[in-house]
Amino acid sequence: MTKFEDLGISSATMKSLKKMGFEEATPVQTETIPLSLQNKDLIGQAQTGTGKTAAFGIPLIDKIDNESNVIQGIVIAPTRELAVQVSEELYKIGYGKRARVLAIYGGQDINRQIRALKNNPQIIVGTPGRILDHINRKTIKLENIHTVVLDEADEMLNMGFIEDIESILAKTPTERQTLLFSATMPAPIQRMAEKFMKDPQIVRVKTKEMTVPLIEQYYVEVQEKSKFDVLTRLLDIQTPELAIVFGRTKRRVDELAEALNLRGYMAEGIHGDLSQAKRLSVLRKFKEGSIDVLVATDVAARGLDISGVTHVYNFDIPQDPESYVHRIGRTGRAGKEGVAMTFITPREKSYLGVVERTTKRKMEKMKPPTLDEALEGQQKAVLEKILQSIDSNNLQFYKQAAEELLEQQDATTVVAAVLKMLTKEPDTTPVKLTEEKPLPNKRERRSGGGGDRRGGGKFDSRDRKRGSYKPRQGQSRGGSEGGKRYNNSGKPRTNSAK
Ligand SMILES: Nc1ncnc2c1ncn2[C@@H]1O[C@H](COP(=O)(O)OP(=O)(O)OP(=O)(O)O)[C@@H](O)[C@H]1O
Ligand SMILES: [Mg+2]
């Protein structure tokens, strides 16, 4: 482990890092910060949750000229929630230097943003469409930019933001520094990215596997119609602190969230059709723990850093291996452990191998739990709560009532009654869940020779555009989000994105 002091960081920024509780630099920070401080272009690839934000954020902030009131750096992120999160982290890193950071994203009142832009922010963090909008209105000027960062670069180049990104880059000085970060960087995307970079250094934190070793990865073979019962049983047995359940489509997410609520779980859904205010409020509730299951499309798969997420459930298998890596990476962050469960229907079995070959890690098979096991799980959770309550030693007030009760009944009966009352017995309230058709059983496209699997492992080509979604077989309603967006040539699509 390397100390931040040894990386050439200013004392003002060191002060912020101390306040944030960062003691030592993570490997990706150790490798990229010195290069970045020398203004080198670079592509940084490191596992989820290993501190890539600070890896680009620390040098970005450190290079800000405090005396200057112009925009000097810009960070582009694929989703609004991620833009907000990254801006918050940059704000913290910039505390020592009093750097001014502003988040600019779609779905928020543009006039409010225009007013905020008048306060001379030095760093902008935003989503591509809204940044471009401000550039066109001349409310953002990029001629003094020295650094452009693409966070989740592969996703943005993949998901149809390429034209927007290129337009933004074209308005920045050519001598700028360009930084790309992601946990995944498929070869075709990397090749495309290099076109707008100067002799980029590729920093890949060497690891055996693409996913985080601290995440236990399981798959459960389950029929489509049994998925929901298996999910609730797993939730009952595994008792996550916070859990994210990923579904394939917006409709799926809505139905799942509703079904979970009917069965007594505190769940809410997040996807791109909700208003921005709703999206942010759902996420806030999840962070605060007032809901404990977040049901999401891939809109929440990338970059989000929510502490307390102990379990990720892929209710529907993701459509490409990169999405798998990012989804499960919402747990097991910053050295913590996590559990990832992936449901696989018999007809989607071929997708398992594709994911495993890309991540270079095998998932362990888990049998779907029975109703009795779910009940046992809930009972165990109650027992733990009781033991915790005994430990807290705050029972004086209840002891007299306990003694009176024990005069009438034997101790085992009393405790059994209490256990029964506290245990959430598996609920069979009927729920409505439209069946998803399985993904097409297409064979994996091999990336011609050389054994480079990084760019391969693509499942399928999908002929659809964001914003003008064409239903394909099995997805006639609901609108799909995220997932595969390559066209047949293996090159990313160039859709205009919203
Ligand atoms: N040097 C450090 N010491 C302690 N904690 C750190 C350090 N660097 C980052 N962190 C914390 O680790 C967590 C994960 O960091 P971050 O979100 O930047 O990961 P990431 O690599 O960008 O992941 P993803 O690929 O999912 O976007 C954050 O809560 C961050 O504050
Ligand atoms: Mg990140």
Automatic annotation (TrEMBL):
GO terms for molecular function: ATP binding; ATP hydrolysis activity; RNA helicase activity; RNA strand annealing activity. The keyword Metal-binding does not apply. Residues 428-498 are annotated as: Disordered. Residues 486-498 have a biased composition (Polar residues). A motif (Q motif) lies at residues 2-30. GO terms for biological process: response to cold; RNA catabolic process. The keyword Metal-binding does not apply. Keywords: ATP-binding, Cytoplasm, Helicase, Hydrolase, Nucleotide-binding, RNA-binding, Stress response. Pfam families: DEAD, DeaD_dimer, Helicase_C. It is found in: Cytoplasm. Its main location: cytoplasm. Its EC number is 3.6.4.13. Residues 33-203 form the Helicase ATP-binding domain. Oligomerizes, may be a member of the RNA degradosome. Belongs to the DEAD box helicase family. CshA subfamily. DEAD-box RNA helicase possibly involved in RNA degradation. Unwinds dsRNA in both 5'- and 3'-directions, has RNA-dependent ATPase activity. PANTHER family: DEAD-BOX ATP-DEPENDENT RNA HELICASE 47, MITOCHONDRIAL (PTHR47963), DEAD-BOX ATP-DEPENDENT RNA HELICASE CSHA (PTHR47963:SF5). This is DEAD-box ATP-dependent RNA helicase CshA. It comes from Robertmurraya kyonggiensis.
